[in-house]
């Protein structure tokens, strides 16, 4: 509990509050791009928050950094590359598709194909199955059935 | 004294559960009626004991008994009474006690309302349920005992509850979630009992459905409450963050929804049996995985309140025993579950198979995304994050496919259908949905496809639900059709209402995401500024003392067309004991939009940082959750589920002893 409070305090007690007025760029197009990029970058000291929403000081530094790169004329990809070079891929909320991460990205579609295949096979089997002869009810079940139907 | 009694009651409850786990199980195997009959009174007794234990802990919190460690760590004399009570489950130990309380409650309900079950199945269900209880009693007593005292001298006051949790929305969020998580334990117990019994039939499907429905309904409300809380409390109006712990509650929800639908096939058509059993096992398994994720500290998150590795290992062991045991049993017995129903490729059965494929794979995607950082670090040495952008991209297609297929599947007849005939009454809805989407596309300033698609899908699903209801009234003149509409079974209404609720939520999400607008600025007191058709005036900022916090409260007036719409008071609260600030947004709730104001920090020039959001259709998200829940209530009220209770009364009056 202590550690949670500490962590929470770290994330919330620092002065800034997400994007502050002085960070906002004058060029609305650049600012919009900065906001988009900020949503894909993780606040490194927070729990699963992007830097756009985070109140932490480090997130504010990153927001300013992203805006500086944009003002310098970087493309979106160049900004992301720059940040990843400095902080590692941990900073990306949307993981890359490189290496083992490919597994993560194809897991869904692959599973859908597999499950869909199994589903279709099952339906095909049920379609061709001969209707089973209805099992006879036991005497006890017969009695209960009567009981229920009499309700 | 009362605390000791509570502790003692908990130990007794554990002992009762051990007997309830073994005696009826043996009795069912040997067909000894006396041994089987023990299960029911024991289930009631176990519930009463845990309830007493829970009451004792609540008493300690309410009276601020600072000789209790848990109360010292999580309470304070100045805390409002509501949060003294909710503080009982606002921490790891207390929430586990709530968990076993609900577990015992469900067990007792199965004993009270299970009159229509065969005696062996009832005995086995209660025994399996008790075995889950035993595992969690052990967990509480050995690793997370809420009744531990502190050494004298006792502290004068407590350290207060995490201020983020001191909120009405969050006070009731955990109980609902647990009702959902633990409700799935009933489905699990039924599945395992049926595997032991070696028999799954239509009656089993009918018994398992109300429990699953109840669990799903509580999960829906619990998740909705959590999301609503995040919206107004965290200060920027987000409603879903794909946080590991949110995912932990979302996966069981998806699987419960799948189970709900597949159990219908078991009940009506005696097919999909072994898949339904597997789903019931997995759904509860994901509840346990959720518990593990939250309490082990493996994944950090807002909700992770216990980061004690020992506890993590214990929960992992529970997970391994129950999933391992149930799945082995499943592997051994599932092949005996012969399907009976025969159906064609185009049929309600096939549509429900499709529904299950989508929901299960969607849950799988969420699962993979949630544990991927762990896998990548352990297996590949890569430290990475998987956040909202991944889930948005990977999960959304499943919801689109699901809602596209939903109205058609919902109207297909059982056994064998004709796609053309089913689609015929739906063409109108489809055309209107597309026309509306096109209209929205031209009216908006060409930003995103999200809103038109969201609207079309929501209209398609809701319209489809209405057409389905109307078609069910058959032919004839209007008045007799309306009469029949009123008399349709609860399940039919429940289906239409729940599906519409889903549509309302989806539209809310699409509308909010696509059309939200935001303004960030520094305002001086007395400033009036314009944003998205509203004028906002910062009238005053003052310090206001609260019961256990100090608030910085702004008074802001919102005008539209020169007329005052609302006066809002966004706050920043400081909790001195917990040393933590929280933000309370000022929100003017509306049918079509929320005006959402947040006050930030004082600026050097004497002004205040102010954020203004216009959030279109925000309330639709939670309204949809409520509507979905309401649909669940309608379904539960269906007469067919009450037949069981009535039958029991009659029989026990007539014979006194269950027939065996």
Characterization of the model:
- The complex is a heterodimer of chains A (151) and B (660).
- Chain A has 151 residues and is an all-alpha fold.
- Chain A has a domain at 2-91: Cytochrome C biogenesis protein (Helicase, Ruva Protein, domain 3, Orthogonal Bundle), CATH 1.10.8.640.
- In chain A, 58% of the residues lie in helices and 0% in strands.
- Chain A has helices at 2-12, 28-38, 57-71, 76-87, 101-128, 139-149.
- In chain A, helix 2 (28-38) packs across helix 3 and helix 3 packs across helix 4 (76-87).
- With 660 residues, chain B is of the alpha+beta class.
- Chain B folds into three domains: 1-166, no CATH class; 194-407, no CATH class; 517-619, no CATH class.
- In chain B, strands 2, 3, 4, 5, 6 and 7 form a six-stranded antiparallel beta sheet that branches. A four-stranded antiparallel beta sheet of chain B has the order 1-10-9-8.
- In chain B, a hairpin with a 5-residue loop joins strand 9 (593-602) and strand 10 (608-616).
- The longest helix of chain B has 33 residues, at 348-380.
- The radius of gyration of chain B is 27 Å and the shape is globular.
- Classes of the chains: A mainly alpha (151), B alpha+beta (660).
- Chains A and B meet through helix 1, helix 5 and helix 6 of A and helix 14, helix 15, strand 1, strand 7 and strand 9 of B.
């Amino acid at each position: 509990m202590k550690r949670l409070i500490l962590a929470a305090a770290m994330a919330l007690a620092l002065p800034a509050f997400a994007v502050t007025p002085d960070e906002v760029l004058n060029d609305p197009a650049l600012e919009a791009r900065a906001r988009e990029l900020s949503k894909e970058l993780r606040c490194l000291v927070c729990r699963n928050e992007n830097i756009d929403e985070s109140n932490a000081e480090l997130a504010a530094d990153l927001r300013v950094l992203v805006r500086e790169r944009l003002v310098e004329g970087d493309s979106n990809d160049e900004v992301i590359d720059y940040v990843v070079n400095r902080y590692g891929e941990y900073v990306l909320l949307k993981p890359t598709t490189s290496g083992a991460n490919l597994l993560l990205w194809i897991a869904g579609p692959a599973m859908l194909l597999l499950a869909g295949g199994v589903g279709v096979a099952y339906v095909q089997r049920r379609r061709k199955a001969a209707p089973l002869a209805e099992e006879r009810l036991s005497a006890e079940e017969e009695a209960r059935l009567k009981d229920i139907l009499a309700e | 004294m009362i605390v000791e009694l509570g502790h003692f009651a908990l130990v007794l409850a554990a002992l009762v559960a051990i007997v309830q786990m073994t005696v009826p199980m043996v009795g069912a195997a040997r067909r000894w009626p006396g041994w089987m009959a023990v299960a029911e009174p024991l289930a009631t007794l176990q519930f009463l004991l845990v309830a007493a234990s829970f009451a004792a802990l609540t008493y300690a919190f309410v009276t601020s008994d600072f000789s209790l460690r848990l109360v010292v760590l999580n309470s304070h004399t100045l805390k409002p009474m509501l949060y003294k009570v909710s503080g009982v489950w606002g921490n790891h130990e207390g929430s586990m006690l709530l968990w076993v309380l609900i577990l015992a409650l469900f067990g007792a309900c199965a004993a009270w309302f299970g009159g229509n079950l065969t005696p062996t199945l009832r005995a086995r269900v209660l025994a399996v349920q008790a075995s889950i209880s035993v595992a969690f009693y052990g967990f509480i007593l050995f690793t997370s005992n809420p009744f531990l005292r502190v050494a004298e001298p006792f502290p004068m006051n407590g350290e207060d509850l995490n201020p983020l949790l001191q909120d009405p929305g969050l006070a009731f969020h955990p109980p609902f979630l647990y009702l959902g998580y633990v409700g799935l334990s009933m489905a699990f117990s039924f599945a395992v009992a049926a595997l032991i019994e070696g028999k799954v039939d239509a009656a089993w499907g009918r018994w398992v459905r109300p429990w699953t429905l109840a669990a799903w309904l509580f999960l829906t409300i619990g998740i909705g409450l959590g999301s609503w809380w995040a919206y107004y409390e965290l200060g920027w109006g987000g409603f879903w963050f794909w946080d590991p712990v949110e995912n932990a509650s979302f996966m069981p929800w998806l699987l419960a929804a799948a189970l709900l639908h597949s159990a219908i096939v078991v009940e009506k058509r005696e097919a999909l049996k072994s898949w339904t059993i597997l789903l019931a096992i997995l759904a509860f398994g994901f509840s346990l995985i959720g518990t593990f994720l939250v309490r082990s500290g493996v994944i950090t998150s807002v909700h992770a309140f216990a980061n004690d590795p020992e506890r993590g290992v214990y929960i992992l062991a529970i997970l391994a025993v129950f999933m391992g045991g149930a799945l082995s049993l499943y592997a051994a017995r599932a092949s005996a579950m012969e399907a009976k129903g025969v159906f064609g490729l185009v049929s309600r059965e096939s549509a429900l198979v499709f529904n299950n494929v989508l929901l299960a794979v969607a849950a799988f995607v969420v699962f993979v995304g949630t544990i991927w950082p762990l896998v990548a670090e352990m297996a590949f040495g890569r430290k990475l994050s998987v956040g909202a952008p991944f889930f948005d991209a990977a999960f959304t297609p499943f919801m689109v496919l699901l809602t596209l297929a939903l109205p058609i599947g919902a109207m297909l007849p059982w056994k064998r259908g004709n796609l053309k005939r089913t689609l015929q009454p739906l063409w109108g809805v489809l055309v209107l949905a597309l026309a509306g989407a096109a209209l929205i596309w031209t009216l908006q300033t060409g930003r995103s496809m999200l809103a038109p698609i969201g609207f079309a899908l929501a209209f398609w699903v809701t319209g489809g639900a209405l057409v389905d209801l109307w078609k069910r009234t058959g032919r004839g003149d209007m008045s007799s059709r309306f009469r029949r509409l009123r008399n349709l079974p609860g399940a039919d209404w429940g289906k239409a209402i729940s599906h519409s609720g889903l549509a309302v939520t989806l539209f809310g999400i699409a509308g909010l995401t696509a059309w939200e607008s935001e303004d960030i600025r520094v305002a001086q007191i007395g400033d009036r500024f314009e944003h998205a058709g509203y004028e906002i005036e910062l009238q005053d900022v003052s310090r206001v003392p609260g019961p256990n916090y100090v608030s910085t409260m702004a008074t802001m007036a919102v005008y539209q067309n020169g007329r005052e719409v609302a006066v809002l008071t966004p706050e920043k609260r400081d909790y001195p004991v917990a040393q933590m600030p929280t933000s309370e947004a000022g929100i003017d709730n509306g049918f079509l939009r929320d005006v959402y104001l947040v006050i930030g920090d004082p600026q050097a020039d004497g002004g205040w940082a102010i954020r203004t959001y216009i959030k279109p259709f925000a309330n639709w998200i939670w309204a949809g959750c409520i509507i979905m829940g309401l649909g669940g209530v309608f379904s539960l009220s269906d007469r067919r589920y009450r037949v069981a209770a009535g039958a029991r009364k009659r029989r026990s009056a007539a014979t006194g002893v269950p027939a065996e």
